[in-house]
């Protein structure tokens, strides 16, 4: 996530496509928060290390459920060796983005997993804040839908920013 956040912020600033509703102070805050998250990850006693095969893009649109209750995961092009906590944070992202507590959904987990999940959960929220702006800037690629995309991405950014700052008091 850290590399993508940095890349998105570089692209926004480098192409002068920072949305007009985003202040320079917010851009600076996103840079600082990216650095803070990177430092927290490196300093964590249970630093995220690849431990298993993970989906890499596990969200509800990639889960198909048959009438029988059998389910399938699709879209495996981001398959990687990584941390299962990242997949779990991704699939719970809609709840996290609404500011809901998801800890009760984790079941019995060891401290190492819970530490890694907390970092992934924070990254998922920061992704909503930053990636929404990158998508807003890319909206011109779809002229017929640009206004709708920009409206949705601005709302996602602003909602994510409120939830992130409330949860992490930054």
UniProtKB/TrEMBL annotation:
Q: Where are the transmembrane segments?
A: none
> Could you tell me which residue ranges the Aminoglycoside phosphotransferase domain spans?
37-101
At the top level, the lineage of the source is: Bacteria
Q: Which Pfam families match?
A: APH
The coiled-coil segments of this chain are: none
Protein name as it appears in the record: Aminoglycoside phosphotransferase domain-containing protein
